[in-house]
Amino acid sequence: MHFLQTFHSAAYLDTLVSYTLALLLGAAIGAERQFRQRTAGLRTNALVALGAAAFVDLAQRLAGDIEAVRVISYVVSGIGFLGAGVIMKEGMNVRGLNTAATLWCSAAVGACAGTDMAAEAATLAIFVVAGNTLLRPVVNAINRVPLAGGQVEATYFVTLTTVPAEVDRLRDLLTDHLELMRYPVAEIETIERPDDRIEMRARLVSTAALDAELDSIIAHLARRHDVQHASWELQTQD
């Protein structure tokens, strides 16, 4: 049998250690994601690490280190497709970026395990878990620090409420007025409200603005008789 000719107990033991290490370290990374009820949890991260280890180990056994490096490059690019599946866009907000990055790191842990770099794989897994846990309080602390509008990159919106008959005229007026103040408009969304009014929501191209300038623009627009309500807001990404 060909199996008996290709089977070597030492090589098999080496592969078994690589698989076991990748599975355990991937599960350790995924446990934190599972605890936080993320899309890709314990099993997903464990299988990503195991799969990466299996492909790298197979390439190394069949063709040596050079081919293993080639397979690692494929793992790096290929895991991006899996990571894209956990990224979701909800309106202007994007969720799942951290989970996708964690999957990418799990694949790196598996690649280390597949090349018999056990210490490096364990160290990387510790760093990944630390990044997802120890850095969380730092992120929360930074998010609680108030920032002036001119200091933060964000998405700015200017909203006007009017009657349907005035929509076309106010849309042009809003665009011209914002561009005059050097705040060009990326797009204007029109929303029909149940009280027979129309809400126009302009998204600005600028990612940094001054609160005082936006307040001045809103005050000017709110004085018009055909504008029932005017406001501005900013949305920052997590």
TrEMBL record:
Keywords: Cell inner membrane, Cell membrane, Membrane, Methyltransferase, Transferase, Transmembrane, Transmembrane helix. Pfam families: MgtC, MgtC_SapB_C. InterPro entries: MgtC-like_C, MgtC/SapB/SrpB/YhiD_fam, MgtC_SapB_SrpB_YhiD_N. Coiled coil: none annotated. GO terms for biological process: methylation. One of its GO terms (molecular function) is methyltransferase activity. It is found in: Cell inner membrane; Cell membrane. Residues 156-232 form the MgtC-like C-terminal domain. It is a multi-pass membrane protein. Residues 21-139 form the MgtC/SapB/SrpB/YhiD N-terminal domain. Belongs to the MgtC/SapB family. Virulence factor required for growth in low Mg(2+) medium and for intramacrophage survival. May be involved in regulating membrane potential by activating Na(+)/K(+)-ATPase. This is Protein MgtC.
